[in-house]
Each structure stands twice: as structure tokens, then as C-alpha cells.
């Protein structure tokens, strides 16, 4: 290998004297620590022990052990980029394709096929309904009352993809939007107000945004809000909203 140019190798050695009568070897010196040898370097093994010749005849065995570079070391510098998980994307396709569906929900005259196991893993209510003692556990068709088809469709999308559909103002779904706002206001608390505020700003829900800002402006609630993860995310991703909170609170205290 040292004959090749620009080559490095690691090796150790041992020198043994061969008995002329018995043929047995007796180690004279050895270097167990590996050394690096380069083709550009004329370095050689140079044992420190001097060997005297006997009867002008001397036989020495030199054993060189070359250490191969490990696979881990040769690949350590490789930059492997792992793509983000697309599991939720596949679940979304599963919902749309209706493949393997084993239950159908009837909501307001519309049918929504789904997979029981997916629903049960995401919701304890669905788990009890589809696998528990409830009568729906034996049925392949379940009728759902008191909910709009659009809302139930959005619920399924959230269960399968952990995301909600984008509201498009072209379809004038104002009533559905107001229903969502009403429900969010009813469940507003210190743990979710910052996240809800970001959602309101994203979807241009001024009414919900005002309620969140008023909630955060309360002297009794703000200290608890700033300790939440939602507030930290809001501060990092939507700092302009916090300016609105500050300005409205200043105006509130002046009046």
C-alpha cells in the first residue's frame, strides 16, 4: 500500500529471532501501539534493541499488522439528510380514499366512511363507542345528531391529519365560522388563550381576537398566560399580535 501515492495506513510490528536448531521464535522487540505511515514519509521500523549475530548467520521474522480503518470512521463525515415524516399525509390519503373503512357515519344526510381503529386511538369517546359496551360497537353505520356535516368532516380531518381545513371566504361559511368562534370562546382559559389568539389572527377572526386580547389583559390572568408554551410560540411566531395586546391594554387603563 505504501507504494501508492497519497496513502496512509496504521500498523504495528514485532521482531522475532529464529532458533537455528529448533525453529522456534523468540520475540526480541515489538510495538503494539499502532503508528501512522504515509507514502510520502520514509519512516521505517527501527527497533531499539541491537541483535548480535551468531556464527555469522541470523534469521529474523518481522510481523507487520496493518489495521484497517473502521467503516464508522470512513462514513462519519457523510451528511445524510432524513426527510420529515409523511405519516399524517398518508393518513389523510387513507381518509379520502375510504380504503379499509369499517364504519360509516351518517351526519345530516351525508355519509362519512372511516376506520374504527384510527378513530379509537385518537378519541376515548370513539373508542368506547366503537369498541366498548355501547350499541354502536356492533354497528357498521352510526348516526350522529346535533352536528353539521361540515363540522364533522373537519373533525375527521383533524383526527387523521392533526390539521384543520383552511376556511375559504369565497364559500361564505360565516355561520360555521361563528359557531367555531362561539365554542372556542366558551372553552377559553389561561392554557389555550395564546394559541387561540394566534389561530384568530391567522383566520382573520376579529371577534375572537378581541376576546383573547381582553382575556389576556386581565391582571389576574396575564401572569399565568405568559408561562404557557402557547405564549412562547406566539411571542416567537407572531410578535405583532403582542403589540396589539399591549396597545389595547394601555388604552384600557387610560379610560
UniProtKB/TrEMBL annotation:
The lineage of its organism: Eukaryota, Viridiplantae, Streptophyta, Embryophyta, Tracheophyta. It comes from Digitaria exilis. Coiled coil: none annotated. InterPro entries: BACK_BPM_SPOP, BPM1-6, BTB/POZ_dom, MATH/TRAF_dom, SKP1/BTB/POZ_sf. Residues 101-164 form the BTB domain. GO terms for biological process: protein ubiquitination. Pfam families: BACK_BPM_SPOP. Pathway: Protein modification; protein ubiquitination. Belongs to the Tdpoz family. It comes from the Eukaryota. This is BTB domain-containing protein.
